[in-house]
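Recall that a protein's primary structure is simply its ordered list of amino acids. Everything else, from secondary elements to tertiary packing, is in principle encoded there. The following example makes that idea concrete.
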Amino acid sequence: MKNVMLITYCFPPDKNIGALRPRGLAKYLPHFGWNVFVITPLSLLPRDSMFNIIETYPTLRNQLGCLKRKQKLDFNRVSFKTPLHKRIFSGFLELIPFPDSKNGWILHGTYTGIRLLKEKRIDAIISIYSPASSHFIAHRIKKFFPCVKWIADFRDLWALNSMHTYVWPKNRLLEKLEKSVLRNADFLTTVSVPLALELEKLHKKQAFAIPNGFDHEEYDFTTNLDNKFSITYTGSLYPKERDPEILFIAVKRLLAEEISAHENIEVKFYGRFNNELDRLIKKHNLEKQVKQMGMVPREDILRKQKSSQILLLNLPEDRGVYTGKLFEYLGAKRPILAIGYKESVVRNILEETNAGIYCFEEQQIYRALKGWYTEWKINKMVTYTGREDRINFYTHRMMASRFAELLDRE
């Protein structure tokens, strides 16, 4: 059994969607001969004992935040306590949040990684972006241990991220910085082919597309479908995603044609309260049918996804970006209504798996809703038609197997 060090800022019990990809790697890489040591910041909450987690000394910003909220960190959980002079220096670095607000973690993560390498035989490193600090830590460790294989993984792009608007010269500076930090990376990985091509263009080295996935074991339960024609959205809404107003217009058309739909249709958004969404609901007089349900625990979210008649996916303009919700929805095995722009890798997955319908115009959304609602009126359920053989291609186990192939390369 070989050992790999997984450097990730987000890891369960963190609620961040970014914690799921590293969790999948930590859980399933051992199935392919790789024992995983997870380096991640000290958490307030208990960690899952099934993982080999090495928590780093908390940054000054995290410590001050805990003091402000009257929360207590358990420093006894830190395996390798960063020396005092490094802690002081790290605190000064945090005054200038560059390359990101997590830059105070770089010294703590580097110190912990080097100590781990001296105590254990580590054969490889996987660092997960974001934040960029994860790659900085891996870069510094690689300088001390050049024979250790390094995979730099991107859940999202860094300097080339279309969700962030950088003005010249900051965009050029970030590109130069990214190329410098990753010049010694053995492999670059990301979640889709379009993003891999962008990485290759910037770094002049091959990048591999390894999609996200879902953990099939999380969905190993049964639940009843909703009695109503339910459309469910789980997660936050972001400014650069497709405006959900196009859905509301289609719903209004359906309500105008179907008298029974006024009582039977419900659209629920689970996540942080969104003022713009509230404005759109009121604008279209859909307060009775469309509601914001707030934040609920993850285990409840999975049940609500699995019991919904339809799952709603709102997509950003970038055609190469998947959202974590897509793979959760594939795991829930309910029909997906994806609303985005004309071209998207999500469209390709839905066509491949037959797990849902991709729409970029209001008329398309209306036709999809009309067909599903007609079926629901007859059967009191919408039939799921996803292809199991293709959907299983997007599990965490399959994702880990692709990383293992790279780790095993000579």
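The radius of gyration is 23 Å. Residues 362-379 form the longest helix (18 residues).
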